[in-house]
Amino acid sequence: MGLIDKVLEKSASMTFLSGCSNYTWLHFTDGKKMLVSKSLVFFETKLNQFIRVHKTALINPLYVTGWQAPPRSKMAGVVTMICGTELPVGRRRWHQLVDALTTANRQTAFTTPVKEGRTVFLVTESATKGQWIQHCLESQFDNCLVDHVNRGEYLYKILEELPDHQLPNLILLDASTSTSDRLTTLRQLKQKPRMASIPTLVLVSGQKPETVNRSYAAWANSVVTVSEDRGIFTQTIKQVGRFWLTLAALPGKTGRPEQLPA
Description:
This protein is of the alpha/beta class.
């Protein structure tokens, strides 16, 4: 497999591409970039889901966080990517961009509705990872709210003080670091009758069979392996959200069991 084929396989982790003559810079979600000897036109024909916003730029609409209309006629608009980069939008391409993004948003809202509103609590020491998971879920699923703390003990204290109707629908424990803290939190949650029925998932990086086994032994509802690659990580989190927030039947927030079944 050639270099270009390998690059195209990673298109999900590309935020945008910028062209210069017969060369193209590929910009990835992890902040890295790569220069390849192919024109932007070449990638435009290969990446059908991307949008050409300017003669020098091709964007992945999944990573657009905002756009600004041209201030005056004959001036360029601006599209803002999740990495903070602002790219010009050609005035002749402006309406095409808005139509494409609006259509994509309508389709996302239609295919991934969240019933009755869902809340997700996340424990992770990485502020960047926490913000990214929050973005992935809240941007993909209507009426979804994500809160995150950096230690399991903080989560447990918060849940103890919340009334039943304010308990989260889903809990994510990032065990890629501080595995002991996450497993301790998991055991505490599952031993507390009013918290035991909350679906609790453990996120692990790489192959860690010991962590997987210990998580299930502590009554984790699921253990999910996440990749270090931002694009793959994003797709994994969205798949987790799609199942647990739209397909799975979750316990109600009232009438939780007073004790664990024998």
